[in-house]
């Protein structure tokens, strides 16, 4: 090392020592401490003070104003220079040894002027594969987020999550896919070789609404094409039968016949076989003419089905109760408005106020009433007069007994014109007088016709009438009458009680009534309702055969109330 470098190092050391002493002085430490801190482990050289450095630390008060530069002895300078060189050499040797151990060649000798850049420290031990974040292996950050972070603990490789392998898109379909012998599911009509393979998912199409009439037009077009094809087939079949398949008919070969001089339908009315505007040529009158004075009336033919209600007016619209009330309210409001308008115009006299006991004092408040008792009597008279008029109007509108009967019969005929219904009931026992009376009297009151035929094992009740009356009669037979009751009622006459006393030994506990048949009929088969008793089954069948109801007896015998198939819903 040259003398110049040694001087620079000594100057630098002295400068740093002065800075340390100035910092110690600013802390107001004793001189002994500063001296020991400055000279610990260093040479015994005295400090040199710079012009701006205070010198009064650790000195006597009298020596505070005198500043004398300290000078180093030659022996001390030589000692300090040799110790610094040894320190620098030892430090450089340690650095070179460390760099050689790390495999880095020192560059201090090759480039002494510039300091070498610090090389990055290399790890001598590689990290575990589970601790490395291989971000370059998977460039998709969404896949890394889905797979999650790698665990920071040791684990076997089988437990590590695997990324899904991307399918390889083959734009060219292999030959084995399009070969029908190897792939029986391949359909060549779905596309060519390039589009026959699996296709990618297409985007959803927009709505394409069918225009009105498009389907009808398409159907009509297809029907027309079908008719044309059918005509072609028929023509081909006819040509095949006539052996005209080899012949080619040209349109020019078809020659239309010339029109005749007189058409065949005009020939009987013409004298000559030609058309002329002459009355003498017409054969209208005469014995040989086809025109006669007689009019032929064809034989009338009955219609295939009876036409009912030809002369009746069309049925009116049936309104609900709320609609009828609304129409009545609107009609009354219109009449009241017209009456008020006529009163305002002077066409009608003003109506008298309707006085009542609750409002006559309010109405007569503006008038002087000399006799309140007379006014009260007048109000009561008006109230009684209005009540009497109301009752008289009701009596005038009330129908007489004959009118009510005619109205009921008219309603019955109107309901029967809509259709007749027949119902057949099977009763186990109809020997109780009270039961027989209810069955007969209700049938006659409801204008039902039929019969109650009692046999040795069962009783058959046949009724026919309007649908409304049949519905009411079914409620009577299936709900209201207690067929298992055997005690007489309070309204039974004495003669019937005597007859029931003789029938006390009959057990009605298993007695019941069932509906076995119901349907529409075209006409009545009975003129009235009658009860009949037949001692034998054959006699009952013969009597029913005369009315055309013989199958009902066999149906009643085979009826099983516990069979869900044959059982009917009586109020359906």
Helix content: 25-40%
**Oligomeric state of shown chains:** single chain
- Uncertain residue segments: 31-77, 105-120, 133-139, 248-252
CATH class placement of the domain at 419-558: Alpha Beta
Structural category = alpha+beta
CATH architecture of the domain at 419-558: 2-Layer Sandwich
> Strand-residue fraction?
5-15%
End-to-end Cα distance, whole Å, is: 131 Å
Largest sheet, strands/sense/barrel: 5 strands, mixed
Q: What is Rg?
A: 66 Å
Look at the structure and give the mean pLDDT: 76
Q: Care to count the β-strands?
A: 5
The helix tally amounts to 15
The shape is extended
Strand order of the largest sheet: 4-1-3-2-5
Organism: Coemansia guatemalensis
Region (Disordered): 30-85, 158-201, 322-342
Protein name: U4/U5/U6 small nuclear ribonucleoprotein prp3
Main location: nucleus
Keywords:
mRNA splicing, 5 strands, Prp3_C, nucleus, 5-stranded mixed β-sheet, alpha+beta, coiled coil, 572 residues, ribonucleoprotein
Plain-language structure description:
The chain contains 15 helices and five strands. 40% of the residues lie in helices and 6% in strands. Helix 1 crosses helix 3 and helix 14 packs across helix 15. Among the domains are: 3-57 and 68-100, no CATH class; 263-293, no CATH class; 323-347; 353-392, no CATH class; 419-558, Alpha-Beta Plaits. It has a five-stranded mixed sheet, sandwiched between helices. The protein is extended, with a radius of gyration of 66 Å. It starts with a helix and ends in a 14-residue tail after the last helix. Strand 2 (449-454) and strand 3 form a beta hairpin. With 572 residues, it is an alpha+beta fold.
